[in-house]
Design goal:
The protein is α/β, with parallel strands linked by helices. It is built from 11 helices and 13 strands. The protein has 3 domains: 78 residues, Arc Repressor Mutant, subunit A (Orthogonal Bundle); 100 residues, Periplasmic binding protein-like II (D-Maltodextrin-Binding Protein, domain 2, 3-Layer(aba) Sandwich); 108 residues, D-Maltodextrin-Binding Protein, domain 2.
Amino acid sequence: MSRQFDYLDDLEAFIAVAEHGSFTTGAVSLSTTPSVLSRAVTRLEQRLGAQLMRRTTRSVTLTESGRHYLEQARAAFNLLGEAERELQGQAGPLRGRVRMSVPTTYGHYRLPTLLARFAHRYPDVKVELNITNRNVDLAAEGVDLAIRLGDFSPGGLVARKLADEALCLVAAPAYLERAGVPQALADLERHRCIPFVLPRTGRVAPWLFRDGGRDIEWQPAPGIEVSDDVLGVVSLAVAGMGIAQSYDFIVHERIAQGELVEVLPALRGRTRPFSVIYAPHRLQSAATRAMIDVLVAARQS
């Protein structure tokens, strides 16, 4: 009787190349050569009758069929790994790897404490952390989970809200001494504002206020526009360049230290949601589920 799964070595080669983005780096991870992996992927494509990768001299990208196959292949390998762990004893330490992508706001201010908690609980799990404000493609880039602004659920993925983070206006004392302290929303028209340009739309993000129970979206006229990294608006505000809107969890220490002053506190009350995004349960590793549990538990504590 012929072997039903005699191509598993080729499948492992395909996953390595897809996750590392090149035959050379994938070969290093498997202690082999690029030519061996290239032949393995070619055999797999011939077996499936579909092109999985587009190859150039400089890059390797997945086709649509390749992205779908990679997702299913990872799920199958995860199931095999969990079956092996169960046979070896459930009391053993959790092992594996979690690849996660988070924005700079969470990566610098919220996540370090949570990762320390996770590492203490699961010391044998390797965490690969990508801090970026780009919305990564989880399946195509081999990312297990991402934290994103919003409470939306991209196609085929699950979104669980982590927190509604409060917003406030801030400025440096030196700026307010020079330009005056605004007393009402209309006063902001006469001030230098430091807004953030949304990467998805290229438009300036409106500032959110609540006035007497009424929600307001106010469009700041930019003195300086900041894009890509929203933390830049805080750095510029600290330098006395103008007024910025940011999250409480980012600026509260600077306010306590006197580097920043809250402006128009009567108009606070609005929030923006952050969520963790991931594939459905059946496609997750045990290590990924453990990370999600730690993230979600922090919201409830």
